[in-house]
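Reopening this one. Same input as before:
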Amino acid sequence: MSNSTTASTLAKRLTMSQPYWQTEAGHSLWETQRACLGPVVETRVGGHSLEMSMGPALMTMSAVSHAICWAPTRDLALSDATLVCPPDHLALPDRCLDAVVIHHWLEHLTDAHFTLQEAARVTADNGILVLFGFNPIGVGGLVRQWRKRQPQFPWNGTWRSANRLRDWLTFVDFEVERVDYCCFRGRTSAACSEYWESLGRRHNLPLGESYMIQARRRQRQAPVQRLKFGLKAPVSPASLGVTRSGSSARYPLYQEHLHHEHPAQTDLAQPHLTRNQQCDE
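Same output, byte for byte:
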């Protein structure tokens, strides 16, 4: 992987994106994204997590004991707990991660849907999949239309809406739990305004420069086998009459048994039956 053309291309894209995160606009965006991610991952304790980030690490506030980062080449690995492999062929077993975070990589991959499929594969049944992307219908999207010929990050990527990624997640059997918009800048300020950020986050306005999608695997309902009750043959009034007559037919047998065991009681009971029969007549 490290010597392949794809790896060198991804490494170049990752290297070219780093100066943006050092600017005031990039650092402000990273802080707002980290604030969105914090409440989602800080309560997850133990297990394993994977972060595929175009910028600085976001999972520093997580309590996950084994945090793994991804890098296209060994030269870009920042720690020993770094996974170096193709993004669409993750060297991990199925459903082994409690949290997977993809930070803006889906905008810079040729086969982004394959990477999303791999991320869904390694996410545990009770795990969470988090996607960060630039919002094409926000204020930043309008600026991008003006700067669409600029090759610098982030304007050179393929921006997709949250609804488009929702369709992709449905294809891999995931459902979106929540979409949070963040980074609401002022007219002339490069940093995210505290006032506009508080207002936009409170009402979750789809005008932020970035969004965070929180998704989980669809829970399949266990198949329920219904029990079938009834008679093999159709029930008719005649059959119900036979049941009652069959029940009454056992009565003389009981009288015969009673006569052998207690003859006196049988003789006493016989006149009573005779009187009842006389009354009926």
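So the earlier flakiness isn't reproducible anymore. For the record, The two ends are 105 Å apart (CA to CA).
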